[in-house]
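[[Encoded backbone]]
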Amino acid sequence: MDPYLSDVLDLLLRLLHVVAGIAWIGASLYFIRLDLGLRPPDDERDKAKGIAGEYWGVHGGGFYHSQKYKVAPEKLPEPLHWFKWEAYTTWLTGFVLLVVLYYFDADVRLVDPQVADLEAWQAIAISVGALAGGWVVYDVLCRLVRSDVALGVGVAAMVVAAAWVLGELLAPRAAYLQVGVVLGTIMAANVFFTIIPAHRELIRAKEAGREPDAAPGISAKRRSVHNNYLTLPVVFTMLAGHFPFTYGHEHAWLVLVGVMASVAVIRHYFNLFHQEKVAWPFLVAGVAALVAILIAIKPADAPRAETGLVDTARVEQIVEQRCATCHSGVAAPNGVRLETRVQIEARAGDIEEQAVRTKAMPPGNSTGITDEERDVLAAWAAQR
């Protein structure tokens, strides 16, 4: 694909993806908070109408009074607002981004010969299979396991297995993203296959004049809560690609699992807090675990070549052969151009971080940089 066209598609799709994601996550977090904050109605007339709980809030210069029915109101209201397109748009744009950025360039972005010697089509098949397989495993667990605790353990085990397996097959950065896309697919599928159908069943029952069955709504609520806990882990995987010290770690899959568990615990703190329950131990535990992980994965000092002073001309030669293929011209990734000595010297710290400490660059070592060349870069960076 033409590099400029790829950048344009990346920009437009990423913009829509982020905006839709903010709308979806915002609505999801708000409705979970609303649900957890419901209190029995004070007015006996509301109880008689089937109101299960109410929530008072102040925002935007006024007061809001939200009420939730046990099942459904006596009469369907008009208009009735739905919350689904935010989820669908987020997933669709995210999948197209995955295709444009990773599948079209799979031999560089998905495949790393140092991890697994795969053909591009094999890596793509693994990616697609993980999306479908993740949803199937999760959905089966939800249907078979009634205990929320046992289900949580099962889903956690699935995530750990996915992080390890994908970390053994795909390029490190792609493996992190892939785990996030698996979880994001589960979230979107929950909306499409369970939550929205439950809402439609409620409406059909009211339109047919029959008493709605509460079971689909209860199942939908359960999946909504799952989505709530998956949100922060998915956001982390989307951001981690900018931080090679995470996915470039020797035990990257463990780092991923640890951070995802930490932010899920922090999410639990907020859910308990919104119920006015004792919550602070979970916040302390989540933050402490996150800090401990970040301390533990601090990159070690880069290896130093025992060659005395390194001539910058030698570094320029390495960069020209191994880095400038991508980092040149106006389309250079993140605007990082490595075409002149001034540009190279200005990026000495980044070169050491990306090419030496984490070995995140070149992606999939597509240009074949050697360990000896990395050592030269390390020694040169130490002179700066």
About this structure: The chain has three domains: 37-69, 108-296, 312-383. The longest strand covers residues 51-59. The mean pLDDT is 90.
